[in-house]
Amino acid sequence: MEHPPRRHAAAKLLECGTPSMRRVITVPCRRSIVRWLATTSVPGLIAMVAGCATVGEPPAQVALPHIKLFSRNPPGAGLPDGWRPWTLSRFKKATEYQLVNTQGRVAVRARADGSASGLVHTLHLDPHRYPLLHWQWKVDNLIASADNTTKQREDSPVRVVVSFDGDRDTLPLNERMFFDNVRLLTREQLPYATLMYIWENRAPRDSVLPNLHTSRIKMIVAESGHGKVGAWQHITRNVVADFQRAFGEAPGRITAIAVMTDTDNTGEQAQAWYGDILFRRGAPPSVRSQAD
């Protein structure tokens, strides 16, 4: 299957800035960023900008504590309340998301066919008060050729992405310059750090996988292999412990959470389901997973 070249998407991102913004950036710098954007996997970019939206006060009606639950929506073609589409570029085919009734519960079904996009929900949450992230997901198969340690095959049938705020001035100079340049080009401020929970084919469960382009994204293997394919998984992660292990520091506030099913790098097909996602108080073991 033929896919639009990423360089087209990169050029589109360059067009997002105002003329004054574009003049600030030197030609060599612009060319460097174009090369990076043209070769960066869509999951990495979506994860980085999923938490960019400015978050004000928490909504009046919240769900443990601020995420709108999928199960409280009727099945149908509409998007779940509180969630919005997240698409990198009009040049990239979008994954299809739909609310469906499955096994007595309303969940979000994702269908990817050489595509990549997600759903995102903005938050304003203190992870130290609500450290336990709990979610449900199910896949009917893995992506045969996917390998999240290789950027050319960086796909996953399910991802749960959490973005965090922090003091960008404490980052190394190269990371600060990278953040500033992307902000100038896209008019979006990248989150300070991002955790991405994935279902991997081979990497051991609980592994921390680096992003090949920036140190501010870390992938954590929440599930691995074929053993639990076809069954609903209930997973709980301690995001404070995971963040400290991945980044070597305490996390700031959580600014967004997202889900994504992507097959743009492998060109394969994938179908998955996402159940309710919520944060809880308490301090049980940092990792728990079970199947229905």
Describe this structure in words.
- This protein has six helices and 13 strands.
- The longest helix is centred in the middle third of the chain and has 14 residues, at 173-186.
- It is α+β, with helices and mostly antiparallel strands and 292 residues long.
Give descriptors for this structure.
disordered N terminus; 6 helices; Jelly Rolls; 32% strand; 292 residues; alpha+beta; globular
Summarize the structure.
The chain has helices at 6-15, 19-24, 27-39, 42-49, 173-186, 239-247, and strands at 84-86, 96-102, 105-113, 116-125, 132-139, 159-164, 193-200, 208-210, 217-224, 233-238, 254-262, 269-280, 287-291. It has 292 residues and is of the alpha+beta class. The strands form two sheets. The chain has a seven-stranded mixed β-sheet with strand order 1-4-11-6-7-9-8. Strands 2-3-12-5-10-13 form a six-stranded antiparallel β-sheet.
For the secondary structure, the number of strands is 13
By DSSP (H or I, 4+ residues per run), the number of helices equals 6
> What is the fold named in CATH at topology level?
Jelly Rolls
Largest sheet: 7 strands, mixed
Structural class estimated from helices and strands = alpha+beta
Spatial separation of the terminal alpha carbons: 36 Å
Mean pLDDT: 79
Number of domains: 1
